[in-house]
């Protein structure tokens, strides 16, 4: 039987914190217990925020923690053509459209609709207002005119059209710590007309992750609960692109002393800092609920 394939997929836009360490160690722990392989993927599509020194620090921190992963490492910024090819397939199906709206324009449109209807406008699982569909009905002439004016645009999935093409039910499997599997229903519609290709790069997190998991043969996705709802959209993209759906496990997030989620943007204590203060890898592993590093056999 083929060995299960796990992956840890950090973004090199800051130093790793305890939340990343937990996710990486949990992937390694699953891989070990399930007789699987562990891959590392560098998710660096955000060309303005990702930096080579953070990538180097990821390798350094993970090695310090005692982790081993297969080489070569897949770096997303080197595979934009793969994402372009996947996007072309969605385009051929007529289920994407160009969106020229700025965030401010979307926010204004939503305020207006809320004022007119007296009802709160629906939000996506990240808390952002669902796209009100302004650009969905642009004519080919209007799109050509706006493009020619040099206005940057993203590409959105036309959720209703996509669901008409792939009505589902969109079933996928979750697995728990013991490998027990449960079948679940994905609800992609909660994302509305999500951005599939950003203005600045030829992909989005959602498209890149789905393409990469398939190309790398990932069978088991282990990541934080903050990405749990993303699976609803990923399962739809997999159906539209004819890609396999891996099994998913979304783990609890590591919280700080006041119960907030750790985040690079909140300057959460990094692994580098605790290393600098003299912590050992085993202390970090223990603090996160993992057993000490096995001593290498001689
Ligand atoms: N790159 C994402 C992050 O650093 C993880 C994506 C994933 O595991 O699907 O949060």
Structure, described:
The protein has 298 residues and is an alpha/beta fold. It has a single domain, classed as HUPs (Rossmann fold, 3-Layer(aba) Sandwich), CATH 3.40.50. Helices cover 37% and strands 14% of the residues. It has helices at residues 18-33, 52-65, 80-92, 103-117, 140-148, 159-165, 205-215, 230-241, 271-276, 281-287, and strands at residues 5-8, 37-42, 74-75, 96-99, 154-157, 171-175, 181-185, 195-197, 220-224, 247-251. Helix 7 (205-215) packs across helix 8. It is globular, with a radius of gyration of 21 Å. It binds glutamic acid. Belongs to the class-I aminoacyl-tRNA synthetase family.
| CATH-assigned homologous superfamily | HUPs
Q: Which geometry do the CA atoms define?
A: globular
Supply Rg.
Answer: 21 Å
Compute the separation of the termini in Å. Answer: 29 Å
Total DSSP helices:
10
Ligand names: glutamic acid
The computed structural class is alpha/beta
CATH-derived architecture: 3-Layer(aba) Sandwich
Number of strands: 10
Spatial order of the strands forming the largest sheet: 3-2-1-9-10
Q: Which blocks of ≥5 consecutive residues have pLDDT under 50?
A: none
The structural domain count equals 1
In brief:
The protein has helices at 18-33, 52-65, 80-92, 103-117, 140-148, 159-165, 205-215, 230-241, 271-276, 281-287, and strands spanning 5-8, 37-42, 74-75, 96-99, 154-157, 171-175, 181-185, 195-197, 220-224, 247-251.
Provide tags for this entry.
single chain, 298 residues, alpha/beta, Rossmann fold, 5-stranded parallel β-sheet, 3-stranded antiparallel β-sheet, 14% strand, binds glutamic acid
């Amino acid at each position: 039987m083929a060995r299960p394939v796990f992956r840890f997929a950090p973004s090199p836009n800051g130093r790793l914190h305890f939340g990343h360490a937990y996710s990486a160690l949990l992937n390694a722990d699953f891989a070990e217990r399930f007789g699987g392989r562990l891959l590392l993927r560098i998710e660096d599509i955000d060309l303005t925020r990702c930096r080579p020194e953070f990538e180097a620090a990821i390798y350094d921190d993970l090695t310090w923690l005692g982790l081993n992963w297969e080489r070569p490492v897949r770096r997303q910024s080197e595979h934009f053509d793969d994402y372009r090819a996947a996007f072309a397939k969605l385009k051929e199906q007529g289920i994407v459209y160009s969106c020229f709206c700025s965030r401010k324009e979307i926010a204004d449109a939503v305020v207006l609709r809320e004022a007119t209807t007296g009802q709160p406008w629906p939000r996506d699982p990240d808390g952002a207002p669902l796209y009100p569909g302004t650009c969905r009905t642009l004519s080919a002439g209007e799109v050509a005119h706006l493009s020619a004016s040099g206005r940057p645009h993203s590409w959105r999935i036309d959720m209703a059209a996509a669901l008409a093409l792939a009505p589902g039910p969109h079933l996928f499997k979750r697995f728990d710590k013991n490998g027990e599997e449960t079948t679940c229903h994905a609800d992609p519609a909660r994302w509305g007309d999500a951005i599939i290709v950003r203005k600045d790069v030829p992909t989005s997190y959602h498209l890149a992750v789905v393409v990469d998991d398939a190309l790398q043969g990932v069978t088991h996705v282990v990541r934080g609960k903050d990405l749990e709802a993303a699976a609803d959209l990923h399962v739809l993209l997999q159906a539209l692109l004819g890609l396999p759906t891996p099994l998913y496990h979304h783990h609890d997030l590591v919280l700080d002393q006041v119960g907030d989620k750790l985040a690079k943007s909140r300057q959460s204590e990094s692994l580098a800092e605790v290393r600098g203060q003299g912590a050992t890898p085993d202390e970090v592993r223990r603090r996160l609920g993992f057993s000490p590093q096995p001593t290498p056999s001689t």
